[in-house]
Request: fold
Amino acid sequence: MSTLDPRTPVLVGAGQTAVDGADASAGPVSMPGLMAEAARAAIADTGIGADQFREPIGLVGVADCLTWRPSDPGRALGAMLGVDPAETVATYTSGTSPLDLLADACQRIQHGAVDTALLAGGEAVRALQRGTLDNGDLDEDGPAPTRMLGTDRHPHHPAEEAADIRAPIQFYPLFENALRASSSRNIDDHLAWIARLWARFAEVAKTNPHAWNTAAPSAEVIASDAGGNRMVAFPYRKLTTANISVNQAAAVLLCSAGAAERAGIPRENWVFVHGTAAGNDHWFVGQRHELHRSPAINAIGRALLGHAGIGVAEIAYRDLYSCFPSAVQITAAELGIDLDDPHRPPTVTGGLTFAGGPGSNYVMHSLATLLHRLREDPAATGLATATGWYLTKHAATLLSATAPSNGYRHQDVQDTVDALPAREIAEDYEGTGTVESYTVTYDRSGEPATGHLSCLLDDGRRALGKTEDPATIAQLLERDPVGATVELPSCTFAASTVSGSRS
Reply:
């Protein structure tokens, strides 16, 4: 400790839990109970035992939870654990929530406000769907948390809503088809590529004892309609979308290095937080200059790696946020990660499809898994990234069991991103545009229902449109429409402009 700042934040414990909840005869599922179980496991994971951990927990943070919403979840969780924290923190809905909590707790520890923080979260959507969820008494009108992290700003532009583009399953396929158009792949080759990428996630989940789906379907199965793997929104089938229908919780325990030493936590159980960084891309998708890029992720990567003094190739363990394949590909491209590297998979958990996608809390599972992986490989570095809304909000962290040479630092890259050019969105536009990207959403019977288009205009603005015309939807699916001229708002194609082949 003589050369280590005692205010250095260090992860010292992690716990994860999952229950099926499909059988009502097995008893109800309690979301706070799942979180408390994960929290107790995190405290026990320090190596000194839950009963021997005497350090007061000064902060309890809980990621937004759809299936358990007390007025102050941190206070409620603390009460279940016999903890009375000085500070409680909650988040607005966002996949970045665990890293928002981590950055907040690290800064509070670094500044001496608290010595120990417990961060947790989870979802019990499967139990809610099956009628087996029982959270007991719920105090919805009590005091608020000490702090709320993130933003609850409305995520859609009116033009996006007018085109019925208002859900992840509509936005992320637009990113995917823009990615494909920017590459040298034709449609069929790209479908095979994303199936192979997702099969790598499935293989990792197969070895994860906390994963929800360990069946490890092959790329061929992921690309097919076998077993009800219907198309949801082109090019995504069910097995390439996040799975929120889980009952999962995870928690991590964070201390100052001084508190960890006082508590007697073995040094081999410490994992240092070298840095955190965060920033949003231009808020509305329609404002972004290119749909297959993320300046915020790029800026976050440069900030983190620059502070740590390492290159991305030196990161041994990665968990790239994986709600959809486009999120992984864009993150990898912005950070300079080779997704074809056979020795370094892009996930340590298996991702949101296979490991499970518990709402805002998935990345807490990333942190828990990385902590144990880095304990086993103390010279290595681990990276976790997080994304919220529609590739809108971003965060990342670098971890290692080796102490940081430059100490911990949080970096907000928002000013850098805000200074970049944005596109104007053309509302109520009538005229021609060039198809930049597109998707077709399907109904639950597996039939194509609605086409959605993103078009660029000659003056650089972006216009969005939708169509329910069967003939136009057939054109979107049978050929490659990117680059074609379309008449808006009808979304009808100019003669002979949809000429690209799928293969």
Observations:
- The longest strand covers residues 431-442.
- The chain has 15 helices and 18 strands.
- The CA atoms of residues 183 and 203 lie 26 Å apart.
- The chain has a mean pLDDT of 95.
